Amino acid sequence: MRKVRAAITGIGGYLPEYILDNYELSRMVDTSDEWIMSRIGIKTRHILKGEGLGSSYMGERAVRELLEKTNTDPLDVELVICATVTPDMFFPSTANIISYKCGINKAFAFDVSAACSGFLFALQTGAKYVESGAYKKVVVVGADKMSSIINYEDRATCPIFGDGAGAVLLEPNEEGLGIQDALLHSDGSGAVHLHMKAGGSAYPPTEETLKKGWHYVYQEGQAVFKAAVSHMADTSVELMEKNNLTADDIRFLVPHQANLRIIDATANRMGLPKDKCMINIDRYGNTTAGTLPLCLWDYETRLKKGDNLIFATFGGGYTWGAMYVKWAYDGGNFSR
Ligand code: UT7
User: Fold this and answer.
1) Best exposed site among 19, 59, 119, 326 by fewest CB in 10 Å?
2) Which residues of 161-197 are buried (b: 16+ CB within 10 A; e: fewer)?
3) Is there a common fold for 5-176 and 180-333?
């Protein structure tokens, strides 16, 4: 019997309409387009506006597009996993809300919390349900409304993040295509450098926690930068070696979009030229769980069946990892 692998068979995405550019940001905090472009590589980011709209609003739109493009009946979807650190609310899960809004009424659904590595962790989780033979249609969504936890008076964090969502469909494949291998890691000692302190059970919201700004992202940029460069690059190279892949074998690196300098360092260590690196950080910023699926969404038409892709990520936790995927379809058949 041939091995069943989990293959990505479609992609959907959504970005909110409002675009916050560096010039508008430089009127909000003491920063400049020059600083942000040279240190991070971001020009614009999308921001979700509108009362009561959370990550599920964007996730729903990404999943709707996915279902339409892949001609999938919502009632055939068996599992929905949503990676997010900005859930609509603590419970029910955002995956649950997205499923309901999309008419996915026969699936079970849950969220995965692994910050910027959330999508990769969720993808690996969904893949195991497919590889085991348990399910044939699994939707994995990455959705984050980072603007809901960013302090727009803190110039060290506010230029970095944006809002957005992407979603993929996982289905069984017996031709050797799909997810081949993954190396995933977590290290709680990194929590001190990147976290949101309040709002959970340790520090439930109070007037005091609000005053202290504990409901915003706290990041020690340089410590996170160093860890991101070394972990993303080391794990990607380790995965290449484990699977006997050279730079020539790889069609694209699909990196988490946190900082163009981190992406460049990872690609360099892997021996990959710039044109083999998916990049959209300049337009979307860091959408946390949204970055990897939004890269696939942007580059879908350039992907061909059999292409070797390496996904690489690093984020709060710390969490990080890399995944080797053999692409399962000619993306040129889709247009958007
Ligand atoms: O996705 C989750 C994982 N997160 C990451 O991977 C982020 C990793 N970290 C980074 O990407 C970078 O560390 C940052 C982009 C956050 C910061 O860049 P940096 O090159 O590490 O800058 P820095 O923190 O060392 O600050 C350098 C200078 C400081 O001024 P002084 O002390 O040298 O006078 C900062 O106050 O830049 C100043 N600065 C700014 N200046 C203009 C910090 N933010 C800004 C700003 N505009 N927005």
Assistant:
1) 19
2) bbbbbbbbbbbbbeeebbbbebbbeeeeebeebbbbb
3) yes
What is the domain partition of the chain in residue ranges?
5-176, 180-333
256 is known as an active-site residue: yes
Residue-wise pLDDT tens digits, 199-239? 999 999 999 999 999 999 999 999 999 999 999 999 999 99
With residue 28 as reference, give the H or E element that holds it: helix 22-28
184 C-alpha vs ligand 1 centroid, how far in Å?
27
286 is catalytic: yes
- With a 6 Å cutoff on the Cβ, whether 286 touches ligand 1 is yes
Instruction: Please say if the pLDDT value at position 328 is more than 90.
Output: yes
Task: Report, at the CATH architecture level, how domain 5-176 is classified.
Answer: 3-Layer(aba) Sandwich (3.40)
Contacts of 182 (CB under 8 A, 6+ apart): 120, 124, 239, 321, 322, 323, 324
Q: Is the distance from the beta carbon of residue 197 to the nearest atom of ligand 1 less than 6 Å?
A: no
pTM: 0.97
* pLDDT tens string 73-111: 999 999 999 999 999 999 999 999 999 999 999 999 999
| Nearest protein Cα to ligand 1, atom 2 | 315
| CATH architecture entry for 180-333 | 3-Layer(aba) Sandwich (3.40)
Q: Identify the pLDDT of residue 334.
A: 61
Q: CB of 155 closer than 6 A to ligand 1?
A: yes
